[in-house]
Design goal:
globular, seven-stranded mixed sheet, mainly beta, 120 residues, four-stranded antiparallel sheet, 49% strand
Amino acid sequence: QVQLQESGGGSVQAGESLTLSCVVSVYTYSRNWAWFRQTPGKEREGVAALEIVTRRTVYGDFVKGRFTISRDNTNLTLHLQMNSLKPEDTAMYYCAALGCYGLRPNYKFWGQGTQVTVSS
C-alpha cells in the first residue's frame, strides 16, 4: 500500500517562508505529482503540479511566483517551497501522486495533510 506523508507545516507570520515535504513509503513510479490545499467548507484547490519526465510545472493563479514545486529523486521526496506567505494561504496542504498532469484532484494517492497557518 502506497502511503504519502507530508511534513513541514506550521504557524508563521505573513511574509515568511515554509517548505513542505512529502515522503513516499513505497516506491511508486508516478509521472505526475502535485500539491493541493483545502480550507473548511471549500473544495480542494490545486497549488502546484510537476511532471518528472519533462520537469514541466503548473501553478495555481494565486501562487504568482511565490511557490516552487520540486522532487528529490534520490529520496523520492516531493517539496513545496512557499515564500511570501499570506494569511489567505492558510489551509491544510496535501501531496498527491499518480494522476493526470495538472491541478485537478484526480490523483490516486493522497497524504493525510499538513496544516499551514499564516497570521497577519
